[in-house]
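Translate structure to sequence.
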């Protein structure tokens, strides 16, 4: 791997609802290396899809990107004009959205849909050249050329997902975001789709962010994982470290809840429920469910800090010193505004 292709810094995405402000992505930072396969995992509602959508700048009202930077090859996508961003989608950064296989136009042949995408991005070509390009793309994802002349209803779920991948890579993007690319597919097809994605990524030399909640599948496909909880990244580490020596109590519970072939064990779930992002718990968002919670966990927001092992974790268990005053501590802890309190500090 040779340097970062994408750097996300302090990304914040809010939804303004009638009930109040929902901080769906709350000050998230991470980097994606060139040629890397990075996975984002977490329970439903943890902010994974919102983050992917924000990276593409496709957040719609009442959502908005409140702040942060999304640096692709050093250029901040959040500063691009709308037209420049439209061009960057597919050519620089591309997304295979959740349920992409169901978003194909049912009354258009696959070929015409793919040519439309190419034309939308200013590609001009002769009819035969377009046909050739579509055939090549389909071949790349393991589909025969005949698929080009078919309608979506004539294809299986796995084939449609491959078409979605072919469309996603049609302009050779540097970064591909795949949001739950295997949801609604059976186990065998899931593996085939992930293998296709990996082959395509290698051929293009692209970097991939895969979003999912199937830890087993993610472990097979990705090299590094980011664990999200309640709109924040709580741990980032290699797949090996996430499974062998997870640091964050939430990651520990997530990995402990996976079935094992080696030993018979009673399934252990994670107690409690994911918090509402409308009214998240103060301090560490995981504290109401955390078996290792300490007194100050309900008051201080833990910052994501890099450990000597190379893992990054947001948890007070790893603070060298815990600052319980109102000012940010050495690890960036910030005292939360507590109802009725006079010390009002923003949540980071
Ligand atoms: Fe648990 Fe405290 Fe760590 Fe949060 S900061 S995960 S509550 S130990």
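Result:
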């Amino acid at each position: 791997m040779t340097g970062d292709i994408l750097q996300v810094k302090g990304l914040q995405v809010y939804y303004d609802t009638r009930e109040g402000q929902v901080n769906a992505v709350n000050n998230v930072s991470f980097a994606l290396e060139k040629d890397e396969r990075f996975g984002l995992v977490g329970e439903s509602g943890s902010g994974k899809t919102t983050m992917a959508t924000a990276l593409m700048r496709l957040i719609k009202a009442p959502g908005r990107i409140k702040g942060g930077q999304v640096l692709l090859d050093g250029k901040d996508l959040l500063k691009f004009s709308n037209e420049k961003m439209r061009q960057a989608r597919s050519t620089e950064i591309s997304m295979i959205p959740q349920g992409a296989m169901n978003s194909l136009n049912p009354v258009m042949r696959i070929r015409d849909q793919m040519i439309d995408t190419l034309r939308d991005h200013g590609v001009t070509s002769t009819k035969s050249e377009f046909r050739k390009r579509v055939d090549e793309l389909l071949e790349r994802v393991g589909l025969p050329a005949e698929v080009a002349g078919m309608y979506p209803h004539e294809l299986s779920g796995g084939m449609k997902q491959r078409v979605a991948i072919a469309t996603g890579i049609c302009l050779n993007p540097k970064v591909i975001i795949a949001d739950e690319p295997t949801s609604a597919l059976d186990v065998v097809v899931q593996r085939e789709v992930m293998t296709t994605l990996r082959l395509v990524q290698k051929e293009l030399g692209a970097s991939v962010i895969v979003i999912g909640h199937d830890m087993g599948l993610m472990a097979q496909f990705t090299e590094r994982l980011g664990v999200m909880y309640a709109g924040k990244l709580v741990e980032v580490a290699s797949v090996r470290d996430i499974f062998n020596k997870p640091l964050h109590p939430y990651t520990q519970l997530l990995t402990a809840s996976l079935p094992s072939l080696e030993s018979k064990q009673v399934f252990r779930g994670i107690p409690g429920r994911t918090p509402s992002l409308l009214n998240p718990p103060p301090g560490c968002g995981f504290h109401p469910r955390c078996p290792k919670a300490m007194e100050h966990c309900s008051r201080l927001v833990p910052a994501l800090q890099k450990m000597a092992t190379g893992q990054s974790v947001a948890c007070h268990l790893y603070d060298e010193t815990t600052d319980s005053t109102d000012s940010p501590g050495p690890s960036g802890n910030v005292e939360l505004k507590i109802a009725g309190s006079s010390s009002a500090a923003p949540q980071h």
